[in-house]
Amino acid sequence: MLNNCEHLTTIILPLSTILIDNVYPLRYKINKRDKLEKDSDILCDQIKALDNQRILPDILTKLSYREILEIDKLVGIILDVC
After folding, report:
1. Residue 52 in 3-state DSSP?
2. Where do the H-state alpha helices sit in the chain?
3. What pLDDT band is residue 6 in, cutting at 50, 70 and 90?
4. Number of domains comprising the chain
5. Which domain holds residue 21?
6. Residues 43 and 78 sit within 8 Å (Cβ to Cβ)
7. What is the DSSP letter of 69?
8. Residue 2: pLDDT over 70
9. pLDDT for residue 56
10. CA separation, residue 64 to residues 45, 53, 69, 70 (Å)
11. How far apart are CA 56 and CA 9, in angstroms?
């Protein structure tokens, strides 16, 4: 996996605090928790490569294994690999 090697970029799915309902499979909602101050949507259709120097060291929250599997499923649907 690209994110597990010493590559200069990391693949990300950005967050938005502008929540939109009924947009399956484009977004995945996560509730505020830990340092994530607002409910947010993970934008599954906005896959980006981000330069590692732009990544802040603070972790807002961690996803559960179940959440990661759900997001993986949504990205697979969007990329038509499921």
Report:
1. helix
2. 65-79
3. confident
4. 1
5. 2-79
6. no
7. H
8. no
9. 87
10. 20, 26, 9, 10
11. 13
Tokens 């949507």 correspond to what residue?
41
Average pLDDT over residues 32-49: 97
CATH number of the structural domain spanning residue 28: 2.30.30.110
Residue found under tokens 């697979």: 76
In whole numbers, what is the pLDDT of the chain averaged over residues? Answer: 93
Largest CA distance in the chain: 38
Name residues whose C-beta falls within 8 Å of residue 9's C-beta, 6 or more positions apart in sequence.
2, 49, 50, 51, 52
Which pLDDT band, with edges at 50, 70 and 90, does 82 fall under? Answer: low
Distance of alpha carbon 3 from alpha carbon 55, whole angstroms: 13
In this structure, what are the phi and psi dihedrals at residue 75, rounded to the nearest 5 degrees? -65, -40
